[in-house]
Each structure stands twice: as C-alpha cells, then as structure tokens.
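Q: Here's a chain of 165 amino acids. Please give me its 3D structure as tokens.
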Amino acid sequence: MFEKAKEALHQKLSTFEQKLTGSQEEEAVRLPKRKFLLVDSDKQYRNFVRDYVMTTEFDVMTVDNAQDALDRLQNYVYDFAVISSTLPDMDGYELARMIGADFTTKNLPIIMLEHEPFPPTPKAHNVTGCMSRTFNKEILLTHIRYCFGRVTEAWKKEEEEESLV
C-alpha cells in the first residue's frame, strides 16, 4: 500500500516538474504576451508572421493598410507597431507621423519594415527601430526581440525623463 502511494506521489511530482520546465512554446503560451500591430500589404508575409508569432512570447494583429491600422490603434492597446515603409494607401513614415501626432498613440513605439534595415536617420520621431522583411523564422524572431529591446529602452528612458521633471 505504501509503495502505491509513493509511486502515485512520484508520478504527480513528475507531472508537476514537466509543467514547470515545459518547452519554450508552452511557456510562451502561458506567459502574458507582448502585443503588436503588423501593418503590411503583403498577405503572405502577414500570414507567415501571424502563424509563427503565435508560438512565441508575442501576439500580433495584422492589417494591410494605413486606414485599418489607424482604426485598430484607436480601439486596441498595443505594445508597439511594425509598419511597412511602403503601403498601398500611404507611406509608412507618414503613417508613423500620424500615429505620433495623435494624443492616444503618440508614445507608441514603431518598428519600420525597410528594404535597407538601418537607414542613417529616422524619418519620424516615434520610429525606434528598423528591420528587414524576412521569411526565416529565427531571423524574424531575432529582429522582433532586438527591436522590442530597443522599444523597452525607449520606455525606460522616457520614464527616467518623466521622473526628473
């Protein structure tokens, strides 16, 4: 009888340890996710990013044009936005300027999808990073994590400046 109880306890402990140590994908699903908006006219790229990002620590909502992006930003809260520099209805940097001019979204960090990932000078004050479009999952996640790191640096700097005032 003692052996059965001991075996059952070991089994429960093993199950508990598996839950604690689970895979990165399982952990990414359990933890609160950082939400971002992807604005890109390429449907294949939007679907690729959406499908891949679901298994990471990020969550994404996608739209294909600037007007839909502005509508989403008025109705949902995001940690940052990833915007293509070329959109069918507007230049990505013009969209970034409009987002920065709106009181409710002026502090939203933006990562610009560029053909050349690191332009020498940002064309809008709220563009905190640039990345190139890629269909390689590892490179995509590295870009997003790097740019999100830049976003969190900007947040920290902003908080420090506000605390000095």
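Q: Can you summarize the key feature?
A: The chain has one domain: 28-164.
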